[in-house]
């Protein structure tokens, strides 16, 4: 939501007060600056004795306020200084302070007399007749002593205030725009840096995959041969483990030139990993996978889920003599899918979670570290979907950890798909 500017956001009040005082001293005109509601934001400069006396009466004071408000409205409508008669019969000026057509306030000046014929041609600020002070000789005497000048001088003073006000506004608006551009440039540089880091990580991963791919067909032929031997020898678990491993390797090598997969493919890869770990850990590992079929065709970055599943096995299941459980879920939402990887392990200290996501956490010699894989997955999610997306980690010590990944249906911006 756009925040409305106030006059104090645009003009330095101390600077404005000095300009206003100097203007009054030079011209003899009274002056004050008000916001768009008519509330003064500066002190009165050179206020006339006539006006001070008139405003002692509450009814007359209300007429003064109404007259100033009317003048301010007229200047806001035209976008130019408005010259008018106040209800007491003195000439006043309202100089609007505008930003992109929006009225922020005005500089009110005047409290002077000019030629009577010219005064008769000026509009009344109240829209009504002048107030009769004939029964108040002290007020009439103060009126006669009010400063007399010419309409030309009043117009020149109004133009001077208008020029000064606009200069101050334009100068500050340029500063505000430059500051906004600076902040946007910083955000853009951070996003460019993030994308560069992710692209470097992807290139490094591609190189490592290429180095590992000596001869994939030979590897799969060997694995299939071992699987058939296991079947002939009645070793069904060995056969299942080999085929699960083959599927994992095939998935990894097949995707080295395509970093985008369907959610169904990614979850099947994680299931193969879990089935192998189940054969290794036996009853110490329980896992479940609950996937909404409507999520299966949603695209996601390659290797989005497996690093979090591996992290759960290493840090939640293996250290516990009794083992534990891992649960993977995928639910459809209007804008996409919500993935969760939940374990019931010992949890992660709060001060470590952000370091894991940032890639700054370093494991000591007693524990394995999969923080790099989680950090890369988090960066790739932000790279593909934008900085508003990524990984959320909730964890409670001795109760477990919940990883949440939001996958939108929109195009993957990092690859322009």
Automatic annotation (TrEMBL):
GO cellular component, one term: membrane
Region forming the signal peptide: none
Domain Histidine kinase: 305-411
GO molecular function: phosphorelay sensor kinase activity
Top enzyme class: transferase
Catalytic activity: ATP + protein L-histidine = ADP + protein N-phospho-L-histidine
Record keywords, A-Z: Kinase, Transferase, Two-component regulatory system
Highest rank taxon of the organism: Bacteria
Name of a matching Pfam family: HATPase_c
Alphabetical list of InterPro entries matching this protein: Bact_2-comp_sensor_kinase, HATPase_C_sf, HATPase_dom, His_kinase_dom, PocR_dom, Sig_transdc_His_kin-like_C, Sig_transdc_His_kin_internal
EC number: 2.7.13.3
Name of the molecule in the record: histidine kinase
């Amino acid at each position: 939501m756009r925040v409305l500017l106030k006059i104090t956001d645009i003009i330095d009040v101390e600077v404005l007060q000095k300009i206003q005082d100097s203007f009054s001293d030079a011209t003899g005109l009274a002056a004050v600056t008000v916001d768009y509601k008519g509330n003064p934001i500066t002190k009165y400069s050179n206020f006339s004795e006539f006006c001070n006396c008139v405003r002692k009466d509450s009814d007359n004071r209300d007429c003064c306020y109404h007259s100033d408000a009317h003048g301010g409205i007229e200047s806001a409508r035209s976008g130019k200084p408005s010259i008018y008669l106040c209800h007491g019969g003195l000439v006043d000026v309202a100089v609007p302070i505008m930003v992109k057509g929006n009225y922020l306030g005005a500089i009110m000046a005047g409290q002077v007399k000019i030629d009577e014929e010219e005064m008769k041609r000026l509009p009344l600020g109240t829209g009504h007749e002048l107030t009769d002070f004939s029964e108040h000789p002290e007020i009439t005497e103060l009126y006669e002593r009010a400063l007399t000048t010419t309409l030309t001088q009043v117009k020149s003073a109004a133009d001077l205030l208008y020029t000064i006000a606009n200069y101050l506004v334009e100068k500050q608006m340029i500063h505000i725009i430059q500051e906004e551009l600076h902040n946007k440039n910083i955000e853009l540089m951070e996003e460019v840096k993030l994308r560069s880091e992710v692209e470097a990580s992807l290139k490094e991963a591609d190189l490592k995959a290429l180095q590992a791919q000596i001869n994939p067909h030979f590897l799969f032929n060997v694995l299939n041969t071992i699987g058939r031997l296991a079947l002939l020898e009645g070793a069904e678990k060995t056969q299942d483990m080999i085929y699960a491993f083959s599927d994992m390797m095939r998935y990894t090598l097949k995707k080295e030139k395509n970093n985008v997969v369907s959610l169904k493919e990614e979850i099947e890869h994680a299931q193969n990993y879990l089935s192998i770990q189940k054969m290794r850990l036996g009853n110490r590992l329980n896992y479940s996978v609950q996937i909404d079929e409507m999520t299966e065709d949603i695209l996601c970055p390659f290797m989005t889920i497996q690093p979090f599943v591996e992290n759960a096995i290493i840090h939640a299941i293996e250290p516990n003599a009794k083992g534990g459980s891992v649960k993977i879920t995928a639910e459809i939402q209007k804008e996409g899918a919500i993935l969760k990887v939940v374990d019931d392990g010992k949890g992660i200290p709060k001060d470590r979670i952000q370091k894991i996501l940032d890639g700054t956490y370093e494991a000591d010699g007693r524990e394995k570290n999969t923080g790099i894989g989680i950090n890369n997955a988090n960066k790739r999610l932000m790279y593909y979907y934008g900085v508003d997306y990524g990984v959320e980690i909730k964890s409670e010590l001795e109760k477990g950890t919940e990883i949440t990944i939001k996958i939108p249906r929109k195009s993957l911006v990092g690859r322009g798909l």
